[in-house]
Specification:
The chain has 3 helices and 7 strands. It has helices at residues 10-21, 40-50, 144-154; strands at residues 2-7, 28-34, 65-68, 74-78, 100-104, 118-124, 130-135.
């Protein structure tokens, strides 16, 4: 199942993140792909807001992982500087640590990604406009909870 939306401002990106975050449950994983500056961290800020995170959310580019407390813990990863041989398998433990895991540049660690997830792709159109695609493999067993999230977000 795939849903695509055009976003015309940072505020709209945060609102989409809030709608998404309001539907998330523990041990859910969101993979984010998109060019530098496309809005991955902005979307994460909206998700964090819906999860009740009160701290400022920013990109963990140099630290790889930031952990935020809210109604569920938020594990925010930016794996841009990693690859499948970088020895960062320890990151897998966060996928089932009782929170929500967001992974920016997820393809960089494809060897350790879980089989079930929500894929978010953000395409830069111009300075204000982005095309957001939310995608879940509906044929894959275990993705039912992700399909429910996608249905809730796309019917609001």
């Amino acid at each position: 199942m795939k849903y695509t939306e055009i976003i015309n401002s940072s505020l709209d990106m945060i609102k989409l993140g809030e709608a998404l975050g309001a539907c998330l449950e523990e041990n859910m994983v969101i993979l984010m792909e998109g060019d530098l500056g496309a809005g991955k961290t902005t979307l994460t800020k909206g998700i964090a807001k819906a999860l009740g995170v009160s701290r400022v959310v920013n990109s963990p580019t140099f630290t790889i992982l930031k952990i935020y407390e809210g109604r569920l813990p938020l594990y925010h990863m930016d794996v841009y500087r990693l690859d499948n041989e970088s020895g960062d398998e320890y990151l897998e433990e966060y996928f089932e640590a009782g929170g929500v895991t967001i992974i920016e540049w997820a393809h960089q660690i494809s060897n350790i990604l879980p089989k079930n997830y929500l894929l978010v792709t953000i395409e830069y159109i111009d300075d204000l406009t982005r095309r957001i695609t939310l995608e879940v493999d509906e044929a894959l067993s275990g993705n039912e909870k992700y399909l429910e999230v996608l249905k809730k977000v796309t019917t609001k």
